[in-house]
Design a protein that fits this description.
alpha/beta; Rossmann fold; five-stranded mixed barrel; 7 helices; Nucleoside_phosphorylase_d
Length: 237
């Protein structure tokens, strides 16, 4: 499918990139998924150490690739995967900081929507405010898979923020009051790129910390322990 195409950021050297790609922010999480869940794995990217792999999961071809942090980085990699390599289903598997009281560490969130404080949508010159939403087909299937596995998930709105260390100490509370489940940094750009190209996208998140209780996981746990989210995402291939 990916033929011999390449970009400045992705150079597959002839290795196929599957139509369904899992997109963790951390390239080492991409390696963890490839090493522990996929068979017949071949690496298709190492440019800038943004590792990418293609293999099979239960007999289906699937790829996994890191995207880095933030909407600019997600914007680059998802745009190229969609528009150069023909990817049709893009599933972000990442972490989020919880905002609501009923979310605990390691809980899984399906991002039905992705609000944002970023200016990413300005490129489309829309005469209004765009609502970033997941592809319903992927969202519906992911919820069904979770139900079949007996895995409780939270479905709702998240915030894709451009700001990690926010000088406005009241910002998180304002998003919380609007029912936003948690904060991450990439989903909105992914949803916009996918919508503009007419392909499917979904963001699945694991709660890595809680903004208000100050509970948090370690970097090592974020890299290797978020397996419930990964198993749901892999079943979407």
């Amino acid at each position: 499918m990916s033929e011999m195409k390449h970009t400045a950021h992705i150079k597959p050297e002839g290795v196929e990139i599957a139509e369904t790609v899992l997109l963790p922010g951390d390239p080492l999480r991409a390696k963890f998924i490839a090493d522990n869940f996929l068979e017949d794995v071949v690496q298709f990217n190492s440019v800038r150490n943004m590792l990418g792999y293609t293999g099979t999961y239960k007999g289906k071809r699937i790829s996994v690739m890191g995207t880095g942090m933030g909407m600019p980085s997600m914007g680059i990699y998802s745009w190229e995967l969609i528009n150069v390599f023909g990817v049709k289903n893009l599933i972000r598997v990442g972490s989020c900081g919880a905002l609501q009281d009923d979310l605990d560490l390691y809980d899984v969130v399906l991002a039905m929507g992705a609000s944002t404080n970023a200016n990413y949508a300005s490129q489309y010159k829309l005469p209004g405010t765009y609502a970033n939403i997941a592809s319903f087909s992927l969202l519906e299937k992911a919820k069904k898979i979770a139900d079949e596995k007996g895995q409780a998930v939270h479905v709702g709105n998240v915030l894709s923020s451009d700001i990690f260390y926010n000088a406005d100490k009241e910002a998180a509370g304002k998003w919380r009051d609007m029912g936003v489940l948690g904060i991450e940094m990439e989903a909105a750009a992914l949803y916009m790129n996918a919508a503009h190209a007419g392909v499917n996208a979904l963001c699945i998140l694991t709660v890595s910390d809680h903004i208000f209780t100050q509970q948090e996981t370690t970097p090592e746990e974020r890299e290797t322990s978020f397996t419930k989210m990964m198993e749901i995402a892999l079943e979407l291939a």
